[in-house]
Amino acid sequence: EHTIDAFRWDCVVWASDGPVCTPGGGLTAWLAATRALVAGASEAEREKLYSANARALWGL
After folding, report:
1. DSSP string across 1-38
2. Which residues of 1-32 are buried (b: 16+ CB within 10 A; e: fewer)?
3. pTM for this one?
4. CA-to-CA distance for 21 and 16, rounded, in angstroms?
5. Residue ranges per structural domain of the chain
6. What is the mean predicted confidence (pLDDT) over 8-37?
C-alpha cells in the first residue's frame, strides 16, 4: 500500500523475483499477499501493476 501511495499505479510493476519475495515463504506466499493487497483495486489498476506498466517501461 505504501508503494502505491508513494508512486501511484502508473509507476509500479509487480515482480516475482525481488528480494522482498523470498523471506516470507517464496512465490506462493508473495502472490497471495499481493492479491490480498490489491483486492480493492480496479481492474485497470491491477492491469497496470501486473503488465501494462512493464510493457510500457521495457517496450514489450
Report:
1. -HHHHHH-GGG----SSSGGGTTTTSHHHHHHHHHHHT
2. eeeeeeeebeebbbeeeeeebeeeeeeeebee
3. 0.77
4. 7
5. 2-13+22-58
6. 81
